[in-house]
UniProtKB/TrEMBL annotation, chain A:
Domain of life: Bacteria
Cellular compartment(s): Cell membrane
Upper classification of the organism: Bacteria, Bacillati, Actinomycetota, Actinomycetes, Propionibacteriales
Species for this entry: Nocardioides yefusunii
Protein name per its UniProtKB record: CidA/LrgA family protein
Cytoplasm in keyword set: no
Keywords per UniProt: Cell membrane, Membrane, Transmembrane, Transmembrane helix
Automatic annotation (TrEMBL), chain B:
Topological type in the membrane: Multi-pass membrane protein
Pfam families: LrgB
Domain of life assignment: Bacteria
Taxonomic lineage from the root: Bacteria, Bacillati, Actinomycetota, Actinomycetes, Propionibacteriales
InterPro entries according to UniProt: CidB/LrgB
Keywords: Membrane, Transmembrane, Transmembrane helix
Protein name, as recorded: LrgB family protein
Subcellular location: Membrane
UniProt source species: Nocardioides yefusunii
Residue ranges crossing the lipid bilayer per the database entry: 12-29, 62-83, 95-118, 153-177, 210-233
Length: 123, 234
């Protein structure tokens, strides 16, 4: 477990180093994710290895990690009440638009490619 | 004596205990309702903890400070999203092209509608800047909000709320919208509902979870790059 934790933190740290050196407008942990992906592809760890177990444990409780940010709602109750309409409408509509745009484009492209693949042998 | 007790109740120890107890309650509710979509553990956790710190008269900054012990792990957890991605890598390659078209469009749509609608409905520039980065995962949306003149802590709240919307509603809505491919569903979830949505996807289906995690990472990156561009044309 400690070894796995070290691997995760090291990837995050190196991600931060990459961001600091290149000034990429990307968060360090996202670069860390790419680094860990490379590490996994290289080492091909077994399912009971520390890195795999630590990662699974963290992902299993992903929602817990957002609780502190969510609790910030108590600090902004007045602002949220006063601007309920612009904040609420903008949040819901924008969230829905993002969801559907991405979903429809990918689903559409996959369906289109599926049809193209089916027709290809006949041509 | 009572002073001592109150001090103990306001200590980081008890605030962390409250956070974990709220989350445990959420997990229990998820279990007893047979994983009902409404029973996302983050919701009771935020409600109980929020009520608790209000009653104890602890201000949010002090709570957030104590809760760093929890929120710190968001970074390593983001790194850990490489694991489902690695397991699904062969399926990722097949969707690379549609994904690289859909995610930037999704990010632009999210930023522009969030920003534009606040203005349209009479909100201030500060509120619009607060909303614009909400599709990126919290650590990123907070940083972006700061850069473009929003209120970072409020951005964190709306970001988590967007995630909760995703975890509760997105699977049903996507089915209605005929988005049935697991890969498309995961990408849409991660692009709009970051980590909280991803946790729902991961518990529904591993493929969906992997693509959601991937979309979350890429959307964080794309939002960072595209926010200055979209806000330039305002």
């Amino acid at each position: 477990m400690i070894r796995g934790l070290t691997v995760l933190l090291l990837c995050q740290f190196l991600g931060g180093v990459v961001v600091a050196l290149t000034r990429l407008p990307v968060p360090g942990p996202v670069v860390g994710m790419v680094l860990l992906l490379g590490w996994l592809a290289w080492r091909r760890p077994a399912d009971d290895s520390g890195t795999v177990r630590v990662s699974e444990a963290l992902l299993k409780h992903l929602q817990l990690l957002f609780v502190p940010a969510g609790v910030g709602v108590v600090a902004y109750l007045t602002v949220l009440r006063e601007h309920a309409l612009p904040l609420g409408v903008s949040l819901v509509v924008s969230w829905l638009a993002g969801l559907l745009v991405v979903g429809w484009i990918v689903q559409g492209a996959l369906a289109w490619r599926g049809r193209a693949d089916q027709e290809a042998p006949r041509a | 004596m009572r002073e001592d007790l109150l001090e103990l109740l306001r200590s980081p120890l008890s605030l962390l205990l409250l956070t974990l107890a709220g989350y445990r309650l959420g997990l229990w509710l998820k279990h007893v309702t047979g994983a009902h979509p409404l029973a996302q553990p983050v919701i009771p956790a935020v409600a109980l903890t929020g009520a608790g710190i209000t009653l104890l008269d602890v201000d949010y900054a002090a709570y957030a400070d104590a809760a760093t012990l929890v929120s710190f792990w968001l970074g390593p957890a983001t790194v850990a999203l490489a694991l489902p991605l690695y397991r699904q890598w062969s399926r990722v390659r097949a969707v690379l092209a549609p994904m690289l078209v859909a995610l930037p469009i999704g990010a632009v749509v999210s930023i522009a509608t969030a920003y534009g609608l606040v203005h349209l409905l009479g909100g201030s520039e500060e509120l619009a800047a607060t909303m614009a980065p909400k599709a990126a995962t919290t650590p990123v949306s907070i940083a972006l909000s700061e850069t473009i003149g929003g209120v970072p802590a409020l951005t964190a709240v709306v970001t988590v709320t967007a995630g909760i919307l995703g975890a509760v509603l997105a699977p049903t809505l996507m089915t209605w919208a005929r988005i049935t491919d697991r890969r498309a569903r995961g990408l849409a979830m991660g692009a709009s509902s970051h980590g909280v949505g991803t946790s729902r996807s991961l518990s529904d289906d591993e493929t969906e979870g992997a693509f959601s995690g991937l979309a979350m990472g890429l959307t964080a990156l794309l939002t960072s790059v595209l926010i200055p561009v979209v806000l330039l044309v305002r």
